[in-house]
Specification:
The chain is α/β, with parallel strands linked by helices. It contains 15 helices and 18 strands. Helix 6 runs parallel beside helix 9 and helix 13 runs parallel beside helix 14. The structure holds 6-O-phosphono-beta-D-glucopyranose. The site of 6-O-phosphono-beta-D-glucopyranose has 15 residues, from loops.
Length: 472
């Protein structure tokens, strides 16, 4: 069965600056916390060269155009624009993204730009990072500079990539743990910074639209035990609704407040913050989804790792509230992430139920050990299978009334995974380099590239499910 997408559906592909660009100190760029990130594993590459997208963006964008992409989601490296995070503007950095935007537009691709994707300027980090109000002001200043420069050519913007995952999976993303007392003041600062960016976008970008970009994945209870269900309710609130409630409703989620009160954590919120929160709202929700989450109530706090055999659950534990639990009903990727297309449909329905706003999926994808054959092909049928199943769920969500307007999966091109280096590949385009050897960084479209090209051209996907009546 063929499932068609609405006319004008926004087909795209995504990436971030630090995972693709390399050129870590080119043309006046300052250091970011990703350049300086402490690392336990030195067998995986860092972001110094990445896939050299900084120098090869023309070739990469031409390939995305060949694939049929209508939109390219990428992030701007704040440290190229403001090397010290604030103060002196680096014209060479601004000019670089002028060129990237022009290359997109020449190919008929809409640039959709994330302001900030895990790469805070190190100079700001040295002065307190997201603990400090100064970073909030600096982010607002940076956002205004970028909107003023590119607002005539870029109308769709994304604020801060996955603030929820940055705070919950701090060790893997930033290389260091943030103590709980500071985490939620950082949450507040990140969310206020986002509000300032929303306000600035609406003031400075004619017809501008802007959305938050959390990672949203429905949280299941491990069983029908009452406490397991309650654990899932709290973790749903802490992991995701707290972020979307702040962005889209301008309020603090009540279960987050209860959690913080029980943990003895207080947050400094000013009257001006309260006003700002309730005055500026996004135009759409961008969300990243890889898999669902399952939690149980931790009866035995001495054995928090019990029942966990997937990579994503190992970071989820909080005695007295919840702990991760590997869902036995789901398959896993080669990197032990569970695969749950049904969970994507449920997540989309839950967002529609709570927020009733247009949604763009800005990340979804499969990290795998791809291989380049002697013939120069990459036979990634497993990725096609993953996408087909998830796109089927997107189509079903739209049929059920979810306002899903676009799908821009991860990733456009192979890039350096957040903590697994080059070996874990996500792209539609293979980049020939490995952890230690940069080789020629040659590009090869994968089998999934050609498959996705067909999906975009047909504006339809061949249904992967045995879909039944009702909710099945
Ligand atoms: C998302 C991030 O959380 O997950 C991306 O926004 C990241 O930056 C992606 O690459 C996949 O995670 P990982 O750890 O496999 O790179």
């Amino acid at each position: 069965m063929i499932r068609r997408f609405p006319d004008g559906f926004l087909w795209g592909a995504s990436c971030s600056a630090h995972q693709t660009e390399g050129a870590w100190d080119a043309d006046g760029k300052g250091l970011s916390v990703q350049d300086t990130r402490p690392r336990d594993n030195h067998d995986i590459c860092d972001f110094a060269v990445a896939v050299d997208h900084y120098h090869r963006y023309r070739e990469d964008i031409a390939l995305l155009a060949e694939m049929g992409a209508k939109v390219f989601r990428f992030s701007i490296a704040w440290t190229r624009i403001l090397p010290e995070g604030t103060g002196a503007v680096n014209e060479a950095g601004l000019a670089h993204y002028d060129d990237v935007i022009s290359a997109c537009l020449e190919h008929g691709i809409e640039p959709m730009i994330t302001l900030y994707h895990f790469d805070l300027p190190q100079a700001l980090e040295d002065r307190g990072g997201w603990d400090s109000r100064e970073t909030v002001e600096a982010f607002a200043e940076y956002a205004r500079i970028v909107f003023e420069r590119y607002g005539d050519r870029v109308s769709r913007w994304l604020t801060i990539n996955e603030p929820n995952i940055m705070l919950l999976v701090d060790k893997k993303i930033l290389g260091r743990a943030i103590p709980l007392e500071r985490k939620y003041q950082q949450f507040h600062h990140l969310m206020i910074a986002e509000k300032l960016a929303i306000k600035a976008c609406h003031e400075l970008v004619p017809g501008g639209q802007i959305g938050p970009v959390p990672n949203i994945s429905i949280v299941y209870p491990a069983s029908a035990k009452p406490k397991d269900y309650r654990a899932s309710l709290y973790f749903n609130a802490i992991r995701q609704w707290a972020y979307l409630d702040f962005s889209c409703k301008g309020v603090y989620n009540p279960l987050l407040l209860d959690y913080l009160a029980k943990k003895g954590v207080s947050i400094e919120v000013t009257d001006a913050d309260r006003e700002l929160m309730a005055a500026h709202f996004p135009d759409f929700i961008a969300m990243n989804y890889y898999t669902s989450v399952t939690v149980e109530y931790p009866e035995d706090a001495s054995n928090m790792a019990d029942g966990i055999s997937d990579q994503q659950s190992e970071d989820i534990m909080d005695a007295g509230f919840y702990k991760g639990f590997t869902n036995p009903n789901l398959e896993k990727t080669q990197f032990a992430w569970t695969i749950d297309p049904d969970g994507m449909l449920t997540t989309l329905l839950a967002i529609e139920d709570r927020y009733r706003m247009p949604i763009v999926i800005t990340e979804n994808g499969l990290g795998a050990y791809d291989e380049l054959t002697a013939e120069g092909t990459i036979e990634d049928d497993y990725r096609i299978d993953y996408y087909r199943k998830h796109l089927t769920m997107c189509a079903r969500a739209i049929e059920s009334g979810v306002q899903l307007v676009g799908y821009s999966p991860w990733s456009a091109i192979d890039l350096v995974s957040v903590h697994e280096g080059m070996r874990k590949r996500y792209g539609f385009i293979f980049v020939d380099r490995d952890e230690a050897d940069e080789k020629q960084l040659a590009r090869y479209p994968k089998k999934s590239f050609h498959w996705y090209q067909g999906v975009i051209a047909d504006n339809a996907v061949d249904d992967a499910s045995e879909s039944k009546e009702g909710v099945a």
